[in-house]
Recover the amino acids of this structure.
């Protein structure tokens, strides 16, 4: 194994640069080093001006998503040796405006999130004061997978639909809505219907490419969530047609 | 126009989100905002794994939870605070359940609990081993339904605004634009977490740089019990990634180089096949981390490129239990160490994990400064005393986040708007950041060099075991590093997302906090909980059944006072584990 590797890093500072450029950094190649360790080596020992986000470095905070050789990855859990002898290309996530270097603007996702009402909605009144809502392990299992999303944005970067249609709610937001729809304690599926089944941006925008599920580092399967919701939405629409004045 | 709110919360983790919801629920007329240097769901609460303690089962009692907490804290906890804490913890965890938190369940649908270190009863609620992640996302998502909670995401607070002794806002940098703005408020709640990044080897995320502690200290609020730094006994070497105590609660063993369960040699009980509460691997974190050091001194640990380790053995638990109860442990070991705990031993060593100390508050989260509140790891109420028990920190940030939110709301409702003096303070702070840091062009050594030396200094001088001479050396070194920081190099002069500027301010926060740790540690001439002095090996209740309250004087020097610990029902006694 060679003991060094070249990282080709996208640089862009809007107050200096007209367009993004690529800068090469040759760094030590160590067995234990993730791509993020390489970036930290550059930042601490070679070039303090490189900007990127990171925090927990254990794959749970969702900060450090970037494109590594063209694939969206959590850089804290992606190892440099897998890209030896290199060079390895590090670029910002796709489909988002770039703020600077490897930092992208995710405000669009943050704005869309509340529109799918990702919180527990109850039809009854106050919860029991001293007791939990009962939920069996099997009922927990029904939605658990969709509750594992860390909002890392890799699925938005991979999604060709989101790239073309900025109105699309996107994989993570829909999966999160399904997380609540499928929770046995929740009664809010009707309230989420308008956003999820909207002609513009709802689940019907998705053509089931499935890239979101492939790149998800937490195995959430947003593509499955979307497909499953399409069936629900059809049933809801049929019910609404048959019972136009009744409760949907 | 200067943005203004009734209550401004610094930090969007568990405590900050809980406080924000408490403000809107307690007074719908108030405007509340969260300012955080990361998006809320990136906050470090997300990394908590094992669980959250609260009495829910009929066989358990509040008194037992209180006693475990107090003895676990080596009698440095304020017992009135502990009693309030254990009484409100079940209500808070139930609220999280009502908000949708996916707690793990019994077959009949009730909340499941697991054992945890230092706890005599099974009372730790859990969401597999991603409890902090689920708790944080549940709180964040619930906060979205409250449109009146405004957010300043990715705004980095650099100082507090203080008008005539009253805290009335912050100065912050909007990272995306580089704009430096005052945000005024009638009350400010610090919920910015701990400071593990002061040390070289820590479970803490990169953002845990003691910001709130330094902001409060510089504004004149004292810090409490800063010498008590928790080392968690089981971190993965190199990365410092935490392997949760739940791995031992589910039956994992700690073994030395000979495969021997060495904890039996350190007054922690006798080994048995099944886990025994408050015994062996389920002893408290301070005692387990200290046992590791002794074991290393005897030459019975394992030598690796990243230092001495022992092994955590989960192989006898079987794949099914590991996958259902501690799946994240397996995921982390596979992804970050290329080790499968179903078949292999996990190398672990003690790792800096949690600050028992923090901004001094009363049981309502109020600091000594009018208008300033604190909750969560940044604060010291104190319920954790000299050593926090695992799974007490998540309920703590809920109970005291809510309390601080309610108290701040009440203060803000009757509070007055800040005077004009704060705007000139904000101007001064803007000039300081621009002139001294952003436009600095003649610096010498990089930020990272000073940061690395600070981290090594703290590990050498103020680690698991300390002594007068190691602490004196550390104090000298920190003074030197403070000087060198003044001429550190900042190459990045861009306004846009300048992470080098942020790192510089964070380093200045950490240097101040490191000094408070070292000064408090050198003055406490006894051993208690996580503070072990080789030159004063015994607990000394005569002199030190008291909190260290460190103040910053106007000339920058520090002064420590010793107010007594509040004792209600549990007089100081011996800590007993495994017998």
């Amino acid at each position: 194994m060679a003991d060094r590797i070249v990282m080709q890093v996208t640089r862009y500072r809007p107050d200096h640069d007209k367009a993004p450029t690529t800068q090469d950094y040759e760094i030590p190649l160590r067995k234990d080093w993730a791509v993020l360790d390489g970036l930290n080596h550059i930042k601490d020992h070679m070039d303090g001006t490189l900007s990127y986000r990171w925090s927990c470095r254990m794959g749970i905070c969702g900060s450090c998503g970037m494109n590594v050789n063209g694939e969206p990855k959590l850089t804290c859990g992606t190892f440099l040796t897998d890209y030896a002898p290199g060079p390895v290309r590090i670029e910002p996530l796709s489909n988002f405006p770039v703020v600077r270097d490897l930092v992208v603007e995710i405000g669009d996702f943050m704005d869309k999130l509340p529109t799918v009402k990702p919180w527990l909605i109850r039809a009854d009144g106050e919860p029991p004061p001293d007791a939990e809502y009962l939920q069996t392990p099997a009922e927990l299992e029904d939605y658990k997978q969709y509750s594992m999303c860390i909002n890392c944005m890799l699925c938005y970067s991979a999604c060709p639909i989101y790239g073309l249609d900025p109105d699309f709610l996107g994989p993570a937001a829909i999966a999160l809505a399904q997380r609540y729809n499928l929770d046995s304690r929740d009664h809010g599926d009707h309230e989420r219907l308008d956003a999820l089944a909207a002609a513009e941006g709802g689940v019907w925008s998705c053509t089931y490419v499935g890239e979101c599920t492939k790149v998800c580092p937490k195995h959430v399967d947003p593509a499955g969530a979307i497909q499953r919701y399409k069936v629900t939405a059809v049933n809801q629409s049929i019910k609404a047609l048959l019972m136009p004045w009744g409760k949907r | 126009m200067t943005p203004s709110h009734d209550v401004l919360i610094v930090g969007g983790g568990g405590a900050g989100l809980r406080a924000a919801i408490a403000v809107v629920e307690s007074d719908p007329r108030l405007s509340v905002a969260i300012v955080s240097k990361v998006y809320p769901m990136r906050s470090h609460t997300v990394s908590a794994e094992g669980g959250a303690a609260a009495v829910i089962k009929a066989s358990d009692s509040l008194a037992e939870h209180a006693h475990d907490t107090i003895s676990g804290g080596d009698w440095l906890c304020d017992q009135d605070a502990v009693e309030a804490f254990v009484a409100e913890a079940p209500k808070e965890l139930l609220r999280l359940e009502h908000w949708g938190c996916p707690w793990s369940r019994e077959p009949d649908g009730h909340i499941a609990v697991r054992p945890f270190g230092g706890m005599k009863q099974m009372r730790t609620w859990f969401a597999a081993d991603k409890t902090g992640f689920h708790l944080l996302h549940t709180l964040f998502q619930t906060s979205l339904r409250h449109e009146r909670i405004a957010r300043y995401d990715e705004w980095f607070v650099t100082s507090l605004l203080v008008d005539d002794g009253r805290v009335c806002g912050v100065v912050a940098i909007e990272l995306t634009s580089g704009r430096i703005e005052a945000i005024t408020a009638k009350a400010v709640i610090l919920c910015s977490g701990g400071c593990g990044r002061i040390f070289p080897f820590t479970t803490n995320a990169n953002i845990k740089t003691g910001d709130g502690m330094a902001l409060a200290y510089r504004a004149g609020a004292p810090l409490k019990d800063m010498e008590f730094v928790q080392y968690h006994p089981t971190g993965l070497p190199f990365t410092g990634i935490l392997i949760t105590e739940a791995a031992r609660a589910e039956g994992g063993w700690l073994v030395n180089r000979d495969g021997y369960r060495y904890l039996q040699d350190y007054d922690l009980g006798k080994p048995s096949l099944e886990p025994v509460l408050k015994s062996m691997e389920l002893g408290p974190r301070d005692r387990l981390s200290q046992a590791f050091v002794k074991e290393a001194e005897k030459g019975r640990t394992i030598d690796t490129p990243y230092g001495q380790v022992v092994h955590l053995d989960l192989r006898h638990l079987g794949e099914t239990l590991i996958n259902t109860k501690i799946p994240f442990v397996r995921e982390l070991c596979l992804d970050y160490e290329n080790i499968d705990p179903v078949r292999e031993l996990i190398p672990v060593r003690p790792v800096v994990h949690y600050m028992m100390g923090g901004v001094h508050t009363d049981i309502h989260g109020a600091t000594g400064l009018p208008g300033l509140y604190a909750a969560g790891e940044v604060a010291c109420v104190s319920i954790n005393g000299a050593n926090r028990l695992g799974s007490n920190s998540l309920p703590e940030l809920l109970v005291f986040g809510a309390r601080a939110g309610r108290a701040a709301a009440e203060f803000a409702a009757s509070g007055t708007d800040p005077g004009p003096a704060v705007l000139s303070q904000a101007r001064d702070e803007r000039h300081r950041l621009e002139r001294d840091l952003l436009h600095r062009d003649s610096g010498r050594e990089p930020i990272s060099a000073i940061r690395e030396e600070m981290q090594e200094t703290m590990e050498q001088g103020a680690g698991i075991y300390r002594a007068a001479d190691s602490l004196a050396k550390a104090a000298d070194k920190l003074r030197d590093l403070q000087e060198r920081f003044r001429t550190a190099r900042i190459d990045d002069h861009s306004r846009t997302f300048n992470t080098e500027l942020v790192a510089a301010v964070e380093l200045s926060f950490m240097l101040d906090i490191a000094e408070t740790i070292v000064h408090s540690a050198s003055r406490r001439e006894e051993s208690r909980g996580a503070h072990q002095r080789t030159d004063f090996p015994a607990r000394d209740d005569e002199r030190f059944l008291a909190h260290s309250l460190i103040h910053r004087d106007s000339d920058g020097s520090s002064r420590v006072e010793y107010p007594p610990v509040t004792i209600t029902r549990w007089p100081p006694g011996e800590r007993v584990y495994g017998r």
About this structure: Chain A has a mean pLDDT of 94. The first helix of chain A runs from residue 35 to 45.
